[in-house]
Write a structure and sequence with these properties.
Elements (H helix, E strand, L loop, with lengths): L4 H7 L15 H7 L6 H14 L2 H4 L4
Length: 63
Amino acid sequence: MKESPEDASTTSRPRRLYTGGERPYDPEDLVMASGRDVTPERIERAKRLMEKEGAAAVERYLP
């Protein structure tokens, strides 16, 4: 029996979706989530924001 296109798309999806700060992220991830280019200055700002706000820093950009 041949697999339909719908079956193929559902098998490649993760069983559990993650959002926000549930998983580890680094300053580069935070900069990219904000839609900006990664620069040394933005990475430093992201580090400070992560230290200050924790997971809430990335949750403002991710669902």
